[in-house]
Amino acid sequence: MKLKLGIPKGSLENATIDLFRRAGFNITTSSRSYFPAIDDPEIECMMIRAQEMARYIEDGVLDAGLTGRDWIEESEAHVQIVTDLIYAKQSFGKVRWVLAVPEASVFQRVKNLEGKIIATELVATTKRYLAANGVKAKVEFSWGATEVKPPVLADAIVEVTETGSSLRANKLRIVETVLESNTQLIANVDSWRDDWKRRKIEDIRMLLEGAINALGKVGLMLNVRKDCLAAVLAILPALKNPTISNLSDEGWVAVHTILEEITVRNIIPRLKEAGGQGIVEYPLNKIVL
Question: Confidence band (pLDDT; 50, 70, 90) for 238?
Answer without folding.
Answer: low
